[in-house]
Specification:
Helices cover 47% and strands 11% of the residues. With 336 residues, it is α/β, with parallel strands linked by helices. A hairpin with a 2-residue loop joins strand 1 (3-4) and strand 2.
């Protein structure tokens, strides 16, 4: 299957996500979607809602990172007239707007501690109290779907996110694979983006992409994931005069991937490890290899520790501890 609820993918990772969506859409359990920026977390949330028994009821998204923290509480829970200066009339909050349907809390990891408590109470009691409300709490019937690009388990360990709220949200976890882990999906994504741009602008001459250019796209690491790919295809189509996307049309950072990867391969310790006649210290060599892999992960993630930790399949806090032990700092990222 190539397409599913507005998402595209033929990779095993995406097929597993599609199958999971079908299963969990039938339940009323809370869902926590985790994945890097640009992987399509809101598309997954909408698919879960659209396939659920609540499909005919509202689906209300809230980006917790886009709304100033001092306004987020009133945006979520609403307020009554006179609750504070400027509250000249009652205002319905997003939670009540979602009554009977689904509430999507995007970037839940950015929510401050006070609001985390209120969301925990909302989940436990299924009630809501607008700011300034002086009556019994209002009963609410919603399904809560959350998403984050943070490692919430690491945030819990660091004391940045409530453990009890994490357990309440993480009833059904959904992990979205980054685009670099599913290069086989890039051809169908590129084809879709080209066709969609042509529908929006029939005067665009681009009709396809060369195999060489496609191979370069599949070799790139895509830190911005599908959103970055979409933006690059649109930019090329705006500037392009010919009808086929060629390697020369791609950004330099993508074209340069092959040469950089070749240099890294030549200098990799995996290819050059030889046991000398006098022997060696396995512990020392393993420590050196660990340090090399951490530095490579930091290079690849452009110094973003959470992303580097994902590449190395460890928590962010564990990565930081290993960086300290190996004396790895930001200056090392600038080494040639």
């Amino acid at each position: 299957m190539v397409g599913f609820c507005g998402m595209l993918g033929i990779s095993a990772g995406m097929k597993a996500v599609f199958q999971l969506i079908r299963k969990i859409s039938r339940s009323n359990s809370n869902v926590l979607i985790q994945g890097e920026s640009g992987t399509g977390k809101e598309l997954v949330a909408r698919a879960i809602h659209d396939l659920s028994p609540r499909a005919d009821s509202p689906f209300v998204p809230v980006n917790c990172a886009a709304i100033p923290r001092e306004l987020l509480e009133s945006e979520l829970f609403g307020y009554v007239k006179g609750a504070f200066t400027g509250a000249i009339s009652d205002r319905l909050g997003r939670v009540e707007m979602a009554d009977g349907g689904g509430l999507f809390l995007d970037e839940i990891g950015e929510m401050d501690a006070l609001l985390q408590v209120k969301i925990l109470r909302l989940i436990q009691d299924r009630t809501v109290e607008p700011l300034g409300w002086r009556q019994a709490p209002k009963k609410i019937d919603i399904r809560i779907i959350c998403a984050t690009n943070r490692d919430l388990e690491a945030a819990v360990q660091a004391g940045e996110f409530r453990e009890d709220l994490f357990f309440r949200l993480n009833v059904v976890p959904v992990q979205l694979p980054p685009l670099r882990q599913r290069p086989e999906d890039i051809p169908c994504l590129v084809d879709y983006f080209i066709r969609r741009q042509n529908e929006l602008r029939p005067d665009f001459p681009v009709t396809g992409i060369s195999p060489e250019a496609l191979q370069l796209l599949q070799a790139y690491s895509w830190p911005g994931n599908v959103r970055e790919l979409e933006n690059i295809i649109e930019r090329i189509m705006v500037m392009k005069t010919g009808n086929v996307i060629l390697p020369a049309d791609l950004p330099e950072k993508i074209v340069a991937v092959d040469s950089v990867a070749g240099k890294e391969k030549k200098t990799s310790r995996f290819a050059s490890a030889v046991i000398p006649a006098e022997g060696l210290s396995l512990k020392t060599e393993v420590s050196k290899l660990e340090k090399e892999l951490i530095v490579q992960a930091l290079h690849q993630s452009k110094g973003v520790k959470e992303r580097a930790a994902r590449l190395l399949k460890m928590n962010r806090t564990t990565l930081i501890e290993k960086m300290k032990r190996n004396r790895i700092n930001a200056d090392m990222l600038n080494e040639p």
